[in-house]
Amino acid sequence: MPARPLLTSIAVVLALVLDLVAGPTATGLPSPQITPRAIGTTRKAATVAALARFPFFFHTQPVRVRGKATEKDGLFQLEHEAARVWLVAGGTGKLPDPGTESEITGVYVDVGRLERTDVRVTADFGTLIQRVLRRDWPAPGELLVIIVDNAVTAEPMSAPSVRYVALDPGRYIDSEVTVVGRFRGKNLYGDMPEAVGTGRYDFVLQSADASIWVVGKRPKGDGFDLNVENRIDAGRWLEVAGVVKEERGMGVLEATAIRVGRPPAESAPEAVVKVPIAVPAPEVVFSAPTQGETDVAPDAKIRVQFSRDVREDSLKGGIAVAYAGVAAPPPAFTVRYDAGRRVAEISFSAPLSPFANVQVVLKDSIVGTDGQALRPYTLAFTVGS
Fold this sequence. Notes:
CATH class of the largest domain: Mainly Beta
CATH superfamily of the largest domain: Bacterial OB-fold
Radius of gyration: 23 Å
Number of strands: 22
Strand content: 25-35%
Helix content: 10-25%
């Protein structure tokens, strides 16, 4: 079969680029294994759509995904509508049988997030990118790969659970289900890539390697009243009944009833010694005006979007606005945070001065929901007449 030599080449190249540990195989070539960095990390159950939509979140993380692989010209991939993830064998990892519903575990990599000038990048890597994309280098999000540890025929989904809803929310869409999981607050531990709405009491429910969002009902009931912003309340087991929805590839449960729950048999997490526990630090991924823009309207509002959720209270004092080279301060401003879109909107009490060079500084005192500091960012633009 022609797939094996090409897949071996892919594995070798990714091994060099990702600082993987070489191990002998039957062919004598190195095989990809992520360098151990932390103990106690668990996999993240996800959909193909979520992996494709949030590569910054899953990059270098061990993941679990469910789907039917396809094979073409020796390349294996998982597809769901417009979303696609490539599959390569890692170490003794077994690729799934094409056309068979499989459950796949492995390490997820967004190749475009690697530095092109990395000394570990070889000419073979450039050849691979040419074959797949017909271009010199992928942009972030363009070449998404799971280095497969294992692939098994997926067991039929029986009674709904947090894991099943996380792996395949489409199977249960608009169905009434009851699941049990740990209360994790408003994504206080970075279990999910982003928020799915603006509800004051939205929270994450987690079990083993899977997490879903719960919306529409306050986590309060007979003998409990949990605070979505407080880690002290995290870890309580809840039984939640509701209707399953899917938002941006993530499982969502519109709750109708919440009560105290008991841990299910699958609650023990699977330990994986492969990647850092921490998710990437939040960063600014978009702004309006754009960086360096000129002729910005004096009455314009400034919008910045973050790569993942940030704590709204940390925005206070975390944003500074000044005129470059001018002592006079700009007008007073207020900040409104749209958690659903992860956007901070800055509004001024009066128009900005014509032709002023404006600097908007976002400080590292702004933190994600897991407490990680924002990568500091300065937006500069020029006001028009």
